[in-house]
Structure formats: structure tokens, C-alpha cells
Amino acid sequence: MQAFLSSSSILANPCPRSLFPRPSTQSQLLLSSVSGARTNAAAAASARRSSGRCVATPASSSPAVAAVATDVPAKMKAWAYDEYGDTGVLKLDEAVSVPAVGDDQVLVRVAAAALNPVDSKRRMGKFKATDSPLPTVPGYDMAGVVVKVGSQVKSLKEGDEVYGHISEKVLEGPKQFGSLAEYTAVEEKLVALKPKNIDFAQAAGLPLAIETAHEGLERAGFSAGKSILVLGGAGGVGSLIIQLAKQVFGASKVAATASSPKLELLKSLGADVAIDYTKENFEDMPEKYDVVFDAVGQGDKAVKVVKEGGSVVVLTGAVTPPGFRFVVTSDGSVLAKLNPYLESGKVKPVVDPKGPFSFPQVVEAFSYLETGRATGKVVISPIP
Ligand SMILES: NC(=O)c1ccc[n+]([C@@H]2O[C@H](COP(=O)([O-])OP(=O)(O)OC[C@H]3O[C@@H](n4cnc5c(N)ncnc54)[C@H](OP(=O)(O)O)[C@@H]3O)[C@@H](O)[C@H]2O)c1
User: Fold this and answer.
1) What digits encode the pLDDT tens for the residues 75-119?
2) 143/189 Cα distance (integer angstroms)
3) Which of 71, 124, 262, 310 could form a disulfide with 306 if both were Cys (CB 3.0 to 4.6 A apart)?
4) Which of 119, 315, 375 is the pocket-test mutation for ligand 1 (most atoms within 8 Å of CB)?
5) Is the CB of 205 inside a 6 Å radius of any atom of ligand 1?
């Protein structure tokens, strides 16, 4: 309903008030850190109402502005918020300036995006001390087509189909212009070519979750022949931890937890043991594991089932020694390394069957994610 109201109010007003009406001082500071941003911001500031249409008038005739005006539109549809809060702060804005492209960046026409719990935590203001300035276009995960390349970009070209997690650091200065938009600008090193056998919606759900699973397994020193218990095996990250542990790292045994309806999924992903947390307490079971990977926030229980000298990786919640926590760093080379496993079908994307959600259904998609019951990834597709 929220999305519907936003859309219809936009339709009623062909030149709606944008959450990004003019670049604020903070926005200009952020934007001017990438090449060409000032001209793009100037073009945005010059957008004016004319004959009932929104027209972006370039402030100068510099090549950068001409490129924005001819290659891609100056304005795009994007979900955005200008204050922290629950899903009610999300607005569909049809007049957001297309982000400028830095020398080391590509501009991607986003075909699909995916939500992560960190999008919700960020929107609630939990990271406001290190967040980019408001207003924010949320979204870390995307898949789409390169439509423009920066001058220092080496391996990508226009027309390439790519996927990636667009903010190198999730919590520290994440991009103000995220992936829930028609276009997003991202560093070349953070993306990879999309695996050929999967579609944009499937690809969009992978980057942040699969990079988290991979980084956690590496940090835990996981290797062939070791055993692992995955807490939260049916979620976005857990469904990939199971598969990477088995198919990429060569686990000798994978156990995972979920509620009763999801046990078959765990087994189909490669779990040797599927533990129904509604019926059994994993921490009371006799089996011990080389690594326990906690994607739920049960660090206190996780340490009870790790072998002496083993590792406990915690993604959320309190950390109990010897457990450790990390925050994922985006890295396109990890995606490129994993592409053969995806293209061979050994590792499969898991898209929640309630989706993909359409672009106007982003509020509904967030509400669903925030139930904590998603199976695999909550995906938004197509965009727009
Ligand atoms: N530190 C980092 O870098 C990093 C990176 C990514 C994610 N995270 C964090 O890791 C957590 C998981 O992320 P995600 O994307 O995987 O979330 P998600 O997809 O929303 O996880 C939902 C899944 O969690 C399962 N679940 C909930 N309670 C459970 C329990 N007690 N035992 C077993 N499974 C349970 C649910 O299964 P049932 O319906 O069967 O309960 C559901 O399938 C989030 O808190 C996220 O913020 C941290």
C-alpha cells in the first residue's frame, strides 16, 4: 500500500518533489569525491519544470554533462529515505539524479537488486555514526548491465552483464546512492561478470551473502576434511555457507539448523545433518565441530559445540570467546573466483519463493525480510 500510494502520487504529479531536490552541502561533499560529480550535481540542480515534463538542463556544455544527457537520463526512479525509521520512511522517488561515475567506477543499469538485513539495520539508524549522509538510496546487492565506464576501468566495457555488492565497507561510509534504483555507480573491483547460467534476479541475491559466507569460512581457517555446524542454514547467508563449505572448501561433514519446513532445503543444499531447532537444542547434542558458523546470533550456545582449537564465526549478536565477529568486505575477485562453481551448478542461488518482488513492492519486500523468516534471498526484480 505504501508503495502504491507513493507511485500514484508520483503519477498525479509529473514533476514530483524529490527527496533529492537539490544536492545538499553534505551530498555535494560526498558526490564531489568522484569525478564528474559536480557537473552532474549542477545538472540536477538545474532540473526545471517545463510544459508539464521534468527537464534536466545542463548547467554547462562540458563533455561530462553531455554524456549524462545523451547516454543515460539525468534522473531515475529510486527508493529513498530522508530520515531513519521503519519501512514507512521509504519513498519511491522518480527524480533522483543518476550518480556520477568515478574514474575507477562503472555505471550499471540495475536489472535486479536484493535486500539484506543490514539494509534494515541501516535504515533504522543503527549505523548512523558511520553512515553516508541522508537522504539515502538503500541497497548493497545488484545485478545489471554496464552502461558507462570510468577512464581508469580496465576489464569491463559497456554491455557487460555484472553483479556485485556495491559498498566495499558495509557500515563505514556505504554508498549514498545504492542499488534500489535504475542506475548505480560502483567500483570495477567490487563487481564481476554475471555467471552465464543464472538470470539477473538470481545473481542479485548472491554478492553480499556469498562474500560473507566465503570470508567467514576463510577467516575460520576452514579447509578440506573439516566439519562445520551452520546456525541459520536456510537464510540468505546460511544457504550459501552450507554450499561453499561442501562444494568449495571440501567439508567432511556439514550440519545446519532451521525450523521443520526447511529441513529438506538444508539437505538439498548439501547438509549431511539437518537439525530442527524447534525440536532439538544443538548445544545439548554430543557432536562437536571444527567450525561453528553462526548466522543467527547464538554465539553463547555456538561455543559449546566447537572442538578444542576450533573456530566460532559470529555474524550478529554478542560474541562469546573463543568466538569472533567480522564485517564483510566487498570484493569482486571473490565473485569471479566462485563463478565456475555457480556456472557448473555446484553452488546454486536460493531466491525466496515469495519473490522476486516487483520494484513498487519494495516496502512489502522489506517487511517480509524483517520477519526473519526468509528462505534464501529476498530479491527485487525487475527494476523498474
Ligand atoms: N557481519 C557481517 O558481515 C554480516 C554479513 C551478512 C549478514 N550478517 C547478519 O547475519 C544475519 C543473517 O543474515 P541473513 O542475510 O542470512 O538473514 P536472513 O536471510 O534474513 O535469515 C533468515 C533465516 O534465519 C533463520 N532463522 C531465524 N532464527 C533461527 C534460529 N533460531 N535457528 C536457525 N535458523 C533461524 C530463518 O529460518 P526459520 O524460518 O526456519 O527460522 C530464516 O530462514 C543477520 O543478522 C545479518 O545482519 C552479517
Assistant:
1) 999 999 999 999 999 999 999 999 999 999 999 999 999 999 999
2) 15
3) 310
4) 315
5) no
pLDDT at 177 over 70: yes
The residue whose CA has the least distance to atom 3 of ligand 1 is: 327
The residue whose CA has the least distance to atom 36 of ligand 1 is 373
Question: Number of H helices and number of E strands within the chain?
Answer: 12, 16
* Contact predicate 74/47, CB 8 Å: yes
How confident is residue 65, by pLDDT bands cut at 50, 70 and 90?
A: very low
pLDDT digits (tens, 9 = 90+) for 231-279: 999 999 999 999 999 999 999 999 999 999 999 999 999 999 999 999 9
Identify the sign of the CA torsion 315, 300, 320, 312.
negative
Q: Left, alpha or beta for 85 (phi > 0: left; psi -120 to 50: alpha)?
A: left
Q: Helix, strand, or coil here: 207?
A: helix
- C-alpha torsion sign, points 371, 324, 267, 352: positive
Question: Does the beta carbon of 212 sit less than 6 angstroms from any atom of ligand 1?
Answer: yes
Q: Is the distance from the beta carbon of residue 257 to the nearest atom of ligand 1 less than 6 Å?
A: yes
- Of ligand 1's listed atoms, the one at least distance from the Cα of 233 is 34
Measured in angstroms, how far is the CA atom of residue 128 from the centroid of ligand 1? 22
Q: Which residue has the higher pLDDT, 384 or 36?
A: 384
Q: ∠ at Cα 122 (80, 82), nearest 5°?
A: 30
Q: What is the rounded average pLDDT for all residues in the chain?
A: 86
Tell me which of 259, 319, 326 to substitute to probe ligand 1's pocket, judged by most ligand atoms within 8 Å of the beta carbon. Answer: 259
State the pLDDT at residue 16: 53
Residue found under cell 567439508:
251
pLDDT for the residue numbered 19: 86
pTM above 0.70, yes or no: yes
The CATH code that applies to domain 208-325 is 3.40.50.720
Could you tell me the CATH superfamily of domain 2-206+351-380?
A: Medium-chain alcohol dehydrogenases, catalytic domain (3.90.180.10)
Whether the CB of 261 sits within 6 Å of ligand 1? no
Q: Is the CB of 296 under 6 A from ligand 1?
A: yes
Mean pLDDT computed over 12-18: 51
